[in-house]
Amino acid sequence: MACGSKRRLVPRDIAYKAMRLQTFLNQSEVSVSRRSKISCFVLAVAATSVSSSPAGAATYYRQSQAQVNFTNSTPVLIVSANIPKGNWIVSTTAEASDLTRAPQATTIACWLALNGQKQDEVDVGNGPTGGYPLPYSIVNQLVVTLSQTTAIELYCEDELGVPNVLIAQGATLIVSPAGNLK
Fold it and tell me: Which of the two residues, 6 and 37, has the higher pLDDT score?
């Protein structure tokens, strides 16, 4: 659909287009912080465009306030929000870095959880010979129907327990109303 088209988007079209834009941004050379801001804007616009969303439905935005330094392979809660029942588009972005060029492989796993139950996991690694000082952008996405208020959480872990691996401050959790899913 071209810009300026008179065709009305239905909620699933908006959710699909928001997810496609998020994927494009993650594959482009746009900075991680700018990607997060653009994603938040797109999801907020999509949420306000969905006329079938329940009255009072809001877009929830949470951002981590501190850097998380991994010291072992224990999962760490990065950011969370309690979300009421309804249909929701969930997107998270976290920036993982291996600052030491560790001589061993490193794998960072991040996943979305609903009330502590793992839903969507993304693993990134730096290869078999060592780390890179450049950050990895980790994005998790989920479309979910909640029957009651539910904690939506982003967890990450350094699966191999390599020292000096971290998740940067500013990881985001964006939860937007999805309207009537079909």
Answer: 37
